[in-house]
Amino acid sequence: MFSQIVRYDEQGHWSADLPDVDSYRTLILAFGSSHMIERDLPLQELVRRYPNSVIAGCSTSGEIYDIGVSDNSMSVAIMKFSDSDVKFASAPVASDADSYAAGKSIARQLQGSSLKAVLVFSDGLMVNGTDLTAGIDAHLPASVSITGGLAGDGDRFEQTWVLVQGRPQSGYVTAVGLYGEIEVSHGSQGGWDKFGPQRVITKSKGNVLFELDGQPALPLYKQYLGEFASELPASGLLFPLQITDPHSPREVVRTILSVDELSQSLRFAGDVPQGYAAQLMQANFERLVGGAEEAAEIAAKNVNMENAVCISISCVGRRLVLGVRTDEEVEAVLESLPAGTKQIGFYSYGEISPITTGTCELHNQTMTVTTITEAA
């Protein structure tokens, strides 16, 4: 397996020459500024240089490259496999209601006896991530690793894109199937602290929360946010909601995508089921960085790391909380992986991964690490 990472900076320069490795077994992953939907010159260059390769990626809330994070740039990983195949799939999504069907379509396009892993990159605003991952997971074998993330747009929540036939487009879910001798490992961890009383979700529909303990959700949420309430939905990234299944120890974190003053409701990136317990969370700086390190350690356990590429997908809320310390969690990931591992990734509106093993799920406010290499 050949692998190289390159960066396209704000000044319009590549950090290194693009390698001459175009083939049907070459995978290009590109994560760039949301503004590239209008100014896509580096994406056009990738399409020209790699006409036979699979090109996938999405917009970000910050581009991860090596041990740094930047904006208005593009991070690219180029992988040419020796004995493994890659395949691209896409499905349109016009609204949340299309999410499960899009996931099902993606799974059916990628099905194959030698399928080892699926990387998913989805529009970040038009998708219910819970339904999307359920649709994919229900139609693929349990042995297939499924990871990825929802495209970002900083803290603006205006427009996201994914790459479809090399062009940045909104309203799509995309995925890459990896087949054959591919080795993929993953890890996902959080690092937030709970605060305030635990409440019960008494009225919800899909990913829209209407009531907690019989009270309208939005004013109750604003009460806890205090001075940050006027900055919703962006400030909601600083105070995610942990939801807990009353019949199991399963816990996931949800981040707000939008608010509706008329219905006094909150829309999240994934489902908030009625009857679940809900509790607000706030940042713990050291635990956020520690969570990123632990995610990488989990990913590094069961994979041959020679020439490996690490895809790190963290939540935009973590970046807003960490601020100038954001690079620390990216450094922690790479330092926890074997020497020579190459890292790119992005800050997202949601992360897709199993918690440790088993069914993939949508997460918010986690660092999700996926390592890709090829068996010797």
Describe this structure in words.
With 376 residues, the protein is an alpha+beta fold. The protein has two domains: 2-189 and 286-374, no CATH class; 192-282, no CATH class. 19% of the residues lie in helices and 41% in strands. It has seven helices and 26 strands. The strands form five sheets. Strands 14, 15, 16, 17, 18, 19, 20 and 21 form an eight-stranded antiparallel sheet that branches. α2 packs parallel to α3 and α5 runs parallel beside α7 (326-335). The longest helix is centred in the last third of the chain and has 16 residues, at 285-300. The mean pLDDT is 91.
Tell me briefly what this model is.
The chain is of the alpha+beta class. It has helices at 41-49, 99-110, 129-137, 217-225, 285-300, 316-322, 326-335, and strands at residues 2-8, 26-33, 54-60, 63-65, 68-70, 74-80, 84-92, 115-122, 145-150, 162-164, 167-169, 172-180, 182-189, 192-205, 208-212, 215-216, 241-244, 251-254, 256-260, 265-268, 277-283, 309-315, 342-348, 350-353, 361-363, 367-374.
Defining traits:
376 residues, alpha+beta, 2 domains, eight-stranded antiparallel beta sheet, six-stranded mixed beta sheet, 19% helix, 41% strand, globular
Low-confidence residue ranges:
none
Number of discrete helical segments: 7
Radius of gyration: 19 Å
Tell me the fraction of residues in β-strands, as a range.
Answer: 35-45%
Give the distance, in angstroms, between the N- and C-terminal Cα atoms.
9 Å
Helical amount: 10-25%
**pLDDT averaged residue by residue:** 91
The tally of domains stands at 2
Major sheet summary line: 8 strands, antiparallel
